[in-house]
Each structure stands twice: as C-alpha cells, then as structure tokens.
Amino acid sequence: MKPSVHGRTLSSPMSYFWTMIIFLILAGFTAAILFRQAHAAFIANPGLNGLILGVLAVGILLAFNQVLSLRPEVRWFNSYRAAGSTEKAGREPVMLAPMRALMASSQSGAISTTALRSILDSIAARLDDSRDTTRYLTGLLVFLGLLGTFWGLLGTIGSINTVIQGLDPGTGETADILNTLKESLSAPLQGMGTAFSTSLFGLSGSLILGFLDLQAGRAQNRFYTELENWLSSVTDVSSDFAPAVVENLAAGSAEEFKALSEHLARLSQEGGSNQRSTAAMASLAEGIQGLVRNMRTEQQMLRDWIEAQQEESKALRRTLDKLTDKIGGQ
C-alpha cells in the first residue's frame, strides 16, 4: 500500500520573491530622491562605479533566479502528491531528480533511511552550489569599493605632494600664493571624491545584494525543511534492518564454511587413504549438511519475522492515515 500523498504540500517561494521586489522598489525610490548626489558621486569615477553597478545587476538576477528555480520543483512535488504517481506529475524536476527516480522505482512508495539521507544530501549540495556565486559577488562588491578607496587615496597623496612641492612662500604676494594653493587642491579633492564614491557604491551594492541573498536563502531553507519533513513521514525504518541482519548472517556462514573447508583440506593432505581420515571427512560432510539446514531454517524464520514487521508497519500507517483524514475532515 502506498503512503498517502494528499494533505501536506510544499509552500510557494513567491512570498520571498515579492519581498525582494518590494525591497528593490524602496531602494530605487531612495536612489531617485538622492539622484543628484548619486550622479555626482558616480561621475567622480564612472569606470569603477559602472563596474560595481554591473556586478550588482548580475547578482540581483542570480538571486531572483535562485527563488524562481524553486517554483517548478514545488509544482512538480505538489502534482506528485495530488496524483500519487511520478508519471502523472508532469514535467520532470531538476533538483528533485534523485527523489523522482527513487519514488518511481519504489512499488510501496516508501524509502529507506539510506535513500532519505542520500536525497537530502544531494538537494542540500545543489542548493549550496546555487548560492556560491551570489555570495562571491557580495564580497566582490565590498572589494571593489575598497579598491576604489585605496586608488583615490593614492591619487590624493600624490597630488598633495605635488602641491607642497610647488609652493614657494618667498616669491609673490600672499594673494597669489593662496590662489595657486586653491587651484592646486582641486586634484587632491578629486582623488578623495574617487575614494568615497566607490566606497559608497560598493557598500550600498553589497547591502542590497546581501538582503536579496538572505531572502533567497530563506526560501531554499523552507523548501528543504518541508521536503525533509515529508520524506521522514514516508521512510521505512525496518527496510534497513533486514539487509543488515542478512548480511551479518551471510558473513558468519561464509566464515564457518571457510574454516570447515580448510580443516577438510588439511585432513585430506595429512591422512591420504587412511580410514580415520575418511571417517573424519564423512563426519565433516554431515556437519556441513546440518549447518546448511540450520542456516536455511534461520533465514526462513528471519524472513517470516521481517514480513510480520512490515505488515504491522503497514497496518499502523493505515491507522495513522485514517486518523489524519478524520482530523482533516473536522
């Protein structure tokens, strides 16, 4: 009997998408109010500031793509829950492809704990990989802002040195000296503008992209948590116990057979045609036959016990499904 596929569904990530849209609208409204100041800061170093805005635009697109890429996965999962079959769920998923393959091959609709951990690890790795680029771009914006700061400060220091070297208090009047000083200070002030404008754009872009990445991470975490909760409800714990017991039994039997065969070969080499050796070999053969019979009996008892446990598990699951339907109907 397949587990119930109705009831719990995955939440849509669009709530985080609209939160990101609203945040960008507020950021754009703030930029529109401060357009004159922002334009003046941008002109101070248009090349580096343009690069910062370009990196910000790429990061924004990637952050939105992380959220929107969850939509087809959620849609496929909810369709599978409603239809109860992977063939009727529609378009094949990308991130949930391992889960679809296991569900399609499982006749009972239940998965083992090993398969559960494998699916969750695969999905977690894919979610982390999708966010690596966005995290890198957030740090890159800070780096570009600091790069512009040091660039502007280096230009400022060089310009101040040139101004000091050009001053000659012993010649000319005071008014001429002040006019020359005022004209010479334009270059250092331009360098300071370059330094502070790139820091402004870099840190602002990092703030915007960091918030968008945070929302994308929250959407992915909710998707992962809800999927983990559902997979835990359809996990068959007893399916991992049976193979382990059979494997241990097979390993123990193999060791016993190996010891018996070695003993038989040693007697054959030592005794040759001796009657005692022949009697010992016959006794060993009877012992091996008895061991085989006992092993078959134990394996049959183990199979009967496993089938009984599975029937009890199915009965308990049917009871829980009925209770869930009754609670949902109320």
From TrEMBL:
Q: Which UniProt keywords apply?
A: Membrane, Transmembrane, Transmembrane helix
TM ranges are 50-68, 136-160, 191-212
Respond yes or no to whether keyword Membrane is given for this record: yes
What name does this protein carry? MotA/TolQ/ExbB proton channel family protein
Question: Which species is listed as the source?
Answer: Rhizobium alvei
